[in-house]
Amino acid sequence: MMKVLSGVIALVLFVFVLFPSVAEAGTVKNTINLFLNNGVMTVGADIAQEDITDFYFTYDSSTNPPFFQRYRFYEDNGAHWFYHEKREGRHWPLREKDITVSGSVKLTDEQWAAFFDLVKGGKVEKRKEHTESGGRGPWLFLYWKGDRCKYQEFSFSSWGAQKVV
User: Fold this and answer.
1) What is the Cα–Cα distance from 124 to 147, expressed in whole angstroms?
2) C-alpha to C-alpha distance for 140 and 21, rounded to whole angstroms
């Protein structure tokens, strides 16, 4: 097993040497961690605070009347932001034209750190279908430098940590 593991790690490192554009900040470490952790990354251990680019919390219900709400924490040109939107209407699905409340605020370093403390210890894994749940959410996605648009589905470290949000 160790021999196979060493061979895989050597192959991954070899590819990054041949294709240096792949080896952006944190990518080599994150790729190896994905392999070693069966595709599950831990925020704070495998994904650093400075690597987080986006976090979405979305609730979308097809009840009558339908309800949609989204919270987003994100990085843009080195600044950190919080965005909120609410959609209301008498039809489903609700679209961008149905936004009734929205707004953004620039976060201080302390506020960004407080957000990170909420998601720290949470798990990020490969996206999957959730057809059994009815599809209303909440849907949680965390995007990070080097994620390659595959490993973004977020879950809090515990129910207690999720209730804080």
Assistant:
1) 10
2) 29
On whether both 31 and 111 belong to a single domain, the answer is: no
Amino acid at 161: A
Residues 61, 138: one domain?
yes
Question: Taking all residues of the chain, what is their mean pLDDT, rounded to a whole number?
Answer: 78
What domain range includes position 88?
40-164
**Nearby residues of 71 by Cβ (< 8 Å), 6 or more positions away:** 56, 57, 58, 82, 83, 84
Tens digits of per-residue pLDDT, 23-81? 444 555 555 555 455 689 999 999 999 999 999 999 888 777 888 999 999 999 999 99
Let me know: does 110 contact 103? Beta carbons within 8 Å.
Answer: no
pLDDT band at 7 (very low <50, low <70, confident <90, very high): very low
∠ Cα 26 139 50 (to 5°): 25
CB 109 within 8 A of CB 19: no
pLDDT for the residue numbered 4: 35
- 3 and 67 part of one domain: no
How many structural domains does the chain have? 2
